[in-house]
Amino acid sequence: MAGSRMKLEFSRVIQGRSRLGVLKGLGRNGQDSMEVPGCLLYTHFGTVPHLTQDTLHTLSNLPSVTQVTLSNIAEHQEVLEEFKDGFRKFAGLHDTLLYCSLHDPAAPCPTGYTTNKTVSVWGSGGRIELTVAKFMALQKIVQPDWYQSMADGETWQNNTSRKRVRKSVDRTLTHLDECLVVHQNSQELDGVEVFGVVEGGDILEERVRSARETAKRPVAGFCLDGLQTGSMDQTLRTQLIAAVTKELPEDKPRLLQGVGRPDEVLACVEAGMDLFESFFPFQVTERGCALCFDFNISPDPERAVLELNGGERDTAGETQPNGDHNLDDQTQMTSFEIDLKDKRYQDDFRPLVEGCGCYCCKNHQRAYLHHLLVTNELLAGVLLMIHNTAHYHGFFGALREALANDQLDLLKDRVLRGRGGQTERKE
Amino acid sequence: MAAVIECGADIDTTPENHMSLKKTLSSASPLTLRIVAECSVTKARACDLVLPHCTVSTPVFMPVGTQGTLKGITVDQLEGLGCQICLGNTYHLGMRPGPDLIEKANGLHGFMNWKRNLLTDSGGFQMVSLVELSEVTEEGVKFKSPYDGKEILLSPEKSISIQNSLGSDIMMQLDDVVSSTVTGPRVEEAMHRSIRWLDRCIAANKNPDKQNLFAIIQGGLNADLRKTCLDEMTKRDVPGFAIGGLSGGEEKDDFWRMVTLSTDHLPREKPRYLMGVGYAVDLVVCVALGCDMFDCVFPTRTARFGSALVPWGSLQVKHKQYAKDLQPIDPDCKCPTCKRHSRAYLHALFKSDTAAMHHITIHNIAYQVSAGIAYSRVKVVIMCVFFFFTEFFICFKRADVSEKHLLQV
């Protein structure tokens, strides 16, 4: 196996499943690292949605890895080819690692266009068909630090046949082998790592087969595809992940695609996942909502008393039934957020989340955000994206800390407590 | 043809000017104008306009933050771009979220969290340009609310009341606004009514010690009417004057004439605000004609369509020709957008994310506020102005603006 420099160093492994540690050996020079469990920084073409450099850098503790997608990039192949110096430089990105995925996790694409030799992505001008050759040509001009290999993941629909699932596993393995051949012969990709993609839909045997086979290839880590939110309920997802991880080497990272809700993240970390995509804060922002779920488990006597006395609880949204099978319904509000368009926030002069140190919470109030949303002002998206990103990354920080201190159950309880909880209605 | 400079305020010591000067320099006043330099060839001047929240260097371009926000830019970014005063719209904010809520939020400053100065217009222009106008009477302007169809009366008293709740540093009188393309007796009627409404506004101002009420000179394109309006309004003791009723599609020749007529008859020691004027060349010319303050939605609005303002005109970033252009929008511009991004990246980004608009907005504000206005205080001191006019010819020279450019623009 070709040596990959990427390596997972554990500080804890809990019950043989949840992993806490540092992913080392990242970047062209192998000097960079990233804490796991962790999430990548979700972007559109290198830009965190709504944010410019100034607004982005009001956030501290940004993930060290930026995610870009071929669905954004593919249509700009010609420009990037002429540019020659890689996507990072083209986008004015400094000091960040780059991970290139195939699809945008927040933009599910139409099905039915995948063939034995191709997958399709949708850019602003329509469908772009990718062969392995074209896929690899794109990787060569993007020059990421690592990328997922080309994969057929069209198995998340309810009525996917066993035959179709098997095909997706076979095709994905073939694509991987072809990608690796090109990769190993490309100077431009020297030092760049490849993640193999594990498919298999909701069929246990196929999942195991895909995992086993992919693990035989010289990849630096694994993406788990076809398990995205809305494709199946969490119980099945956990089952499948557990089965898959048994087949994967311990010291290689596992990236779970398309899963971002806090409850699902927690369950999947428990099942052995390391990396997630951070598209969830973006989805929350787009529906004019702010993340507000509690992830603070540090002992605070004042808070305890407050809660004991039924003190002011922030309204969580309507309970989402666990395991909604509708992928299209990702626009629906979850119980982890508040809907700022609601009239009750019209004269609420508190920050979005008390104690949140983000730019939005330090400078603005719910009433102002409400006004911006009601009047359709662009600043709403900017401020909400800042807050939601900060809150989400804060959650991951709390997750790592909980793992370090053996307090995962406490964290789970705290985070999930908002569901179906007291809804404060102002009449 | 370098101009001879006068530095420092040229204090006219005739008794009445001495008195009014004393008034403007009085420490109780929420506005003080200090003239720092004047060009002796043109009527341009550079001043310090001292307002309650901070001092503003004039000539100044004021970006328009219609609904209590500047189209995707945070207040920190706005401050960082050197903006010392921006606009809010009384009409929009009076509708949503309404004066009561904003008062609860500690005024518009508190609501937006803007620590520098705010200027609010009266709502008059929006009512004419935006909504179904029911009727203008001596009472005020009756119109139909676009949100619930109810009839609303905006009177001078109501406008000032809303602006008092907003707490802006500069408030505009409610004027009877008539398009500059209208002619006939309506223009005269509107001019006289605006004077009467000015008096009502002055009387209605609850916070004269904190909020400055500006008069708005009307009179259309009729020199006599303008002169009458000027004579009358300058008799009122207001801290500043706006030149209104222009920038509405009239011929440029008529436009300049009215501007220069107005500045000829406005007191030197009070600021002159030319409303709605924003294209770079117009700014340059009107500074030469003696105006100090400008506002326009153009730079921020055009940014959202991908149009970036540059010294040589504008650049349509979304056009194919920039797809592979690796230069920044303006290689000489020091704004955050030009320091980091190329035209090619921005061109591509327009297909993926709204942030592309924000990048252009930031650039356009930077351009307009600090560079585009063409005269920094230093330049007022060493400039002269080029105009092509039927009646006179003034020479304008800036290091990087050539004659050819002026002819184009």
UniProtKB/TrEMBL annotation, chain A:
GO terms for biological process: tRNA modification. It comes from Lates calcarifer (Barramundi). Belongs to the queuine tRNA-ribosyltransferase family. QTRT2 subfamily. InterPro entries: QTRTD1 (IPR028592), Queuine_tRNA-ribosyltrfase (IPR050852), TGT-like_sf (IPR036511), tRNA_ribo_trans-like (IPR002616). The lineage of its organism: Eukaryota, Metazoa, Chordata, Craniata, Vertebrata. Keywords: Cytoplasm, Membrane, Metal-binding, Mitochondrion, Mitochondrion outer membrane, tRNA processing, Zinc. GO terms for cellular component: mitochondrial outer membrane. Its cofactor is Zn(2+). Non-catalytic subunit of the queuine tRNA-ribosyltransferase (TGT) that catalyzes the base-exchange of a guanine (G) residue with queuine (Q) at position 34 (anticodon wobble position) in tRNAs with GU(N) anticodons (tRNA-Asp, -Asn, -His and -Tyr), resulting in the hypermodified nucleoside queuosine (7-(((4,5-cis-dihydroxy-2-cyclopenten-1-yl)amino)methyl)-7-deazaguanosine). Pfam families: TGT (PF01702). It is found in: Cytoplasm; Mitochondrion outer membrane. Binds 1 zinc ion per subunit. The gene is QTRT2. Gene3D superfamilies: Queuine tRNA-ribosyltransferase-like. GO terms for molecular function: metal ion binding; tRNA-guanosine(34) queuine transglycosylase activity. Its main location: cytoplasm. Residues 18-417 form the tRNA-guanine(15) transglycosylase-like domain. This is Queuine tRNA-ribosyltransferase accessory subunit 2. Heterodimer of a catalytic subunit QTRT1 and an accessory subunit QTRT2. It is a peripheral membrane protein. Zn(2+) binds at C356, C358, C361, H387.
TrEMBL record, chain B:
Its EC number is 2.4.2.64. This is Queuine tRNA-ribosyltransferase catalytic subunit 1. Zn(2+) binds at C333, C335, C338, H363. Gene3D superfamilies: Queuine tRNA-ribosyltransferase-like. GO terms for molecular function: metal ion binding; tRNA-guanosine(34) queuine transglycosylase activity. GO terms for biological process: tRNA modification. It comes from Lates calcarifer. Its main location: cytoplasm. SUPFAM superfamilies: tRNA-guanine transglycosylase. Residues 42-368 form the tRNA-guanine(15) transglycosylase-like domain. The keyword Glycosyltransferase applies. The active site is at D121 (proton acceptor), D295 (nucleophile). Substrate binds at D121, S122, G123, G124, F125, D175, Q218, G245. Pfam families: TGT. Heterodimer of a catalytic subunit QTRT1 and an accessory subunit QTRT2. Keywords: Cytoplasm, Glycosyltransferase, Membrane, Metal-binding, Mitochondrion, Mitochondrion outer membrane, Transferase, tRNA processing, Zinc.
